[in-house]
Design a protein that fits this description.
Elements: E1 2-10, H1 14-22, H2 24-31, E2 39-42, E3 49-53, E4 60-69, E5 73-83, E6 86-87, H3 92-95, E7 101-109, E8 112-121, H4 126-145
Helix pairs in contact: 1-2, 1-4, 2-4
Length: 147
């Protein structure tokens, strides 16, 4: 597994960027860069489950919120796949990435926030994430910098 890192500088408060990242309405907007209709089902509390789902097919992945520091850091530990809204047992394919991490760190710098995302990926997903994540972060920036 390899860890990819993406960063973007945003002229907004940490509270605004955090809100854009994790509030349902804006979360759906920026994650559309990965798949139209993407959304999450969660309480957004540390230690709780989270389901990352696609549009209407009930497919996606289940994870846990490994660490949450309000306005600073969010870490997801990805566990397995979801099909038809049901968590599947870990098979050989899912075992390749089960336990992978995805983290979001917000670092204030004057009137800016530096947002750094790190995501563990398997080789077959590398090009996809290298293409999609910059697009997603540009949407986060655009939404965060709106007044």
């Amino acid at each position: 597994m390899e860890t990819l890192e993406f960063t973007i500088r945003i002229k907004a408060t940490k509270e605004k960027v955090w809100s854009v990242l994790w509030d349902d309405k804006t979360y759906r907007k920026w994650t559309s860069a990965f798949s139209e209709g993407s959304h999450a089902v969660s309480t957004w509390n540390e230690g709780d489950k989270i389901q990352f789902l696609g549009a209407e097919d009930g497919g996606g992945m289940n994870s846990i919120i490994d660490k949450k520091v309000l306005y600073e850091y969010m870490a997801f530990k990805h566990l397995g796949e979801i099909k038809d809204f049901k968590e599947l047992p870990i098979d050989e394919k899912a075992n390749e990435w089960s336990g992978s991490m995805e983290t979001y760190r917000l670092t204030p710098d004057d009137e800016f926030i530096d947002l750094k995302v790190q995501v563990d990926i398997i080789e077959s997903h590398k090009d996809y994430f290298k293409n999609a994540f910059p697009k997603a972060l540009e949407i986060v920036k655009e939404l965060s910098e709106k007044q």
